[in-house]
Amino acid sequence: MYPKHHFLRLLLVFASFSLSFCTYQNDPFPLHHRRPYHPTNYGGNYYYNPGRAYRRPTFFPGRDTGNYYRPESPSLLSSRSNSFGMINSARRAGSPSNSQPIFNVDDFGARGDGRDDSEAFNKAWNRACSSKQGAILVPKNKVYHLKPITFSGPCQSDLTMLIYGTIKASPRRSDYENDRLHWIKFQDVENLRVEGGGTINGNGKIWWRNSCKINKALPCKHAPTAVTFHQCNNLRVANLRFKNAQQMHLTFQKCLNVLALNLRVIAPGNSPNTDGIHVTDTQNIQIMNSLIRTGDDCISIVNGSKNVRATDITCGPGHGISIGSLGADNSEGYVSNVFVNRARLTGTTNGVRIKTWQGGRGYAKNIKFQNIVMNNVTNPILIDQNYSVQVSNVIYNNIKGTSASEVAMKFDCSKNYPCGAISLRNIHLVPLGYQRVEASCENVRLDSEGIISPTCSSL
Questions:
Q1: Among 264, 259, 366, 260, which residue's Cα sits nearest to residue 315?
Q2: Are 325 and 348 in contact (CB under 8 A)?
Q3: Catalytic annotation on 113?
């Protein structure tokens, strides 16, 4: 009897352990998260552990539900899981047996002493890109100065650039005579990772002083985008600081399957045209857990972009989170399937905005703004359409906070192409100080649910 009793106990214990180890949570956005690289010394050589392969994100528009967003206290540069399982911090890198050799830019002649290190970076990239294995290392505690540079693919294998130190732009505007639009450009690279916790500094002050927005007597000219990813598929950009870009900080152009997370993008609030993250003609992109404080849009989403998700965003100062402008210069503009969830905007000139140009064609549709806090925001909710780009199927859900303008919610739509299927759910915007707030709603087809304040007269 007693041995049988003990056997049953052991059987129950074994079953409980099996259930514990076999239980898992399905990830609706199955991206294999790997921790930032830390050098490990194996026999005198540095190696990079690449971990598991990148998997394409799956987009589920409008599925998430959640409570009123409250910011968390830990650093934005530390990885953490979010409530929907998009990033699972428990997923770890692979075994040291799969390690890859590191190409340290110092070994190719980089000095980090104020002189130009572009040639050394080019050599390190070309060596890594042409190798069957490899990652590029930018060591910490050094500042490397670069002229305009393009890191081109395709490469022989998956590639990682590990930035621990600081990369700083050349201060000489004459260095950009051949290309005034780009400083650092990654082009035609598949399965690329750029990460590490370091800083990319655009050294933009000289460009801002020569901007027509600062000095009205000067002609308006383009300034370089600090970092551009062009036609890069299966891309991860993580755990980096971007600061003081010449113009835009970070652009994703014609990319597919992108994960951008744990980014800190900083420039003065009066720096001209310094968008934080600019998404153009890019599909299947997630922007997560990032702090953006600049002189223009925190996030801008323009023509050709589809399946865009921004989650846990802190924005301000700046111009808010924008879709558009679309249809400039009588062009076509198309944006669809955008989901912005859990964001805090402070002191921005707009909150969540959709803007189109007169004479343009196209659409902005299937868009959801959810769980957003506005603090001293001018124009918290804004659709500035009033032209021929059609705006439809837009949901505003659980948006609360203070408005710095009397009109807290504005839908300015075209009589010929009214905004359709605009849904308001639980909107509560109150005045900042002693002013009142109101809603302005022109040529818009609305429906509502829950408390809406301020409200349109048509509701």
A1: 264
A2: no
A3: no
